[in-house]
Amino acid sequence: MISQRAKNLDPYVPGEQPKDREYIKLNANENPYAPSGKVLEALSHLITHKPLSLALYPDPDSNELRSAIAQSLNASSGVLGTMGTITQQIELSISPDMVFCGNGSDEVLSVLFYSFFNADKPLIAPEHSYSFYPVYCGYYGIPLNKIPLNKDFTLDTESMLKASRESCCGLIFANPNAPTSLALSVENIRKMLEGFPSNKVFVVDEAYVDFSDESALCLLNEFKNLVIVRTFSKSFSFAGMRLGYAVAHPELIEVMTRVKNSFNHFPVDIAAQTAGIAACKDTLYYAENAKKIIAQRERLIDFLRKNGWMCYDSKTNFVLAKKDGISGKEIYEKVKTDGILLRHFNTPVITEYVRISIGTEQQIDKLIKSLEKI
Ligand SMILES: Cc1ncc(COP(=O)(O)O)c(C=O)c1O
């Protein structure tokens, strides 16, 4: 009765959501702040004044939302990305036909894998990156060539390029990467693209870019095979709403749209479209929250390093940390008894680490108190 395909699946495991008590959730890289007042107003206006819109199908191609995203990205070009934290000064000219929207960036990634990665050659990805990439490879039958990270957890870009030139259907990595929290500079991404086959798609997943310094959006004009994936889940506080997008050359977006229309015509519902448009017009609010999160991140890193922990220079809304003599799982268990959830991993190389999402100042206060006992 069960298909062989379904039997072979090895699904993604998200951060746990236990209900036995109230936890401070620092395990899924969610944003501790609610969406902006303008988003809440737009949603309440939708329900109060346009209730019938809930009964009608939404715009299948999210046209107004795609325009709003393009506009907000272009407007942010002085401080590239969407947040005031990004310092790179580049003029962007992103048009709505360069934007594809989906039900979270997980769905955007799924469409992208189906659209561009064939099963006859391997996809190149770092050994440690977003753990949904191997899941989609399994789902679509795409072989995966996982390239180990350097000892310091940076990407081994030379080996990734060498493997790509030998045989690949495409390449993907998250930048900043997860769970390492480290970022590759745009200059290094440019160098990779220069040596990468121009007839294969090169994907940079920028889920955490708004907590970093620079975005690869400025390379889109030069490289027609570059796809940048982004999400509203992290810096825009939309993890519960589900909204993500890809930015790329219109010809690639057109292919993704064709694939989307063969699978789910209406991936972004009316509430997410409405909220997304409002959020794009309120980026200052999100920039302020990103700054608060970055401040807490740096405070936590400082605490950890002063107390004998090892952790990386994070460019994300989480830190990856370890302490000698105790495993990631043990740290996770100890902190859980204080009502705080962290993420630990069973994958070799990173089993010693815990990944800690950055919360509010009060949440980090409580976490620090709990970690002091370790
Ligand atoms: C690197 C990366 N990409 C994509 C996603 C998916 O985000 P969403 O589906 O919520 O947009 C995540 C989620 O944690 C992530 O870490």
Indicate the topology.
Layout (H helix, E strand, L loop, with lengths): L3 H5 L15 E2 L11 H13 L13 H13 L23 E4 L1 H13 L6 E4 L5 H9 L3 E4 L9 H10 L3 E5 L11 H10 L5 E5 L20 E6 L12 E4 L2 H11 L9 H11 L2 H24 L2 E3 L6 E6 L4 H9 L3 E2 L1 E2 L9 E4 L3 H12 L2
Parallel strand pairs: 1-11, 3-4, 3-5, 5-6, 6-7
Antiparallel strand pairs: 2-8, 7-8, 9-10, 10-13, 12-13
Helix pairs in contact: 2-9, 3-9, 4-5, 4-8
Bound molecules: pyridoxal-5'-phosphate.
Task: List key phrases describing it.
374 residues; alpha/beta; Aspartate Aminotransferase, domain 1; Aspartate Aminotransferase, domain 2; 7-stranded mixed beta sheet; 4-stranded antiparallel beta sheet; binds pyridoxal-5'-phosphate
Question: What can you tell me about this protein's structure?
Answer:
Helices cover 37% and strands 14% of the residues. α2 (37-49) packs antiparallel against α9, α3 packs parallel to α9 and α4 packs across α8. The protein has twelve helices and 13 strands. By secondary structure, the protein is of the alpha/beta class. The longest helix has 24 residues, at 283-306. The chain has two domains: 15-31 and 286-372, Aspartate Aminotransferase, domain 1 (Alpha-Beta Complex); 37-281, Aspartate Aminotransferase, domain 2 (3-Layer(aba) Sandwich), CATH 3.40.640.10. The site of pyridoxal-5'-phosphate has 13 residues, from α4.
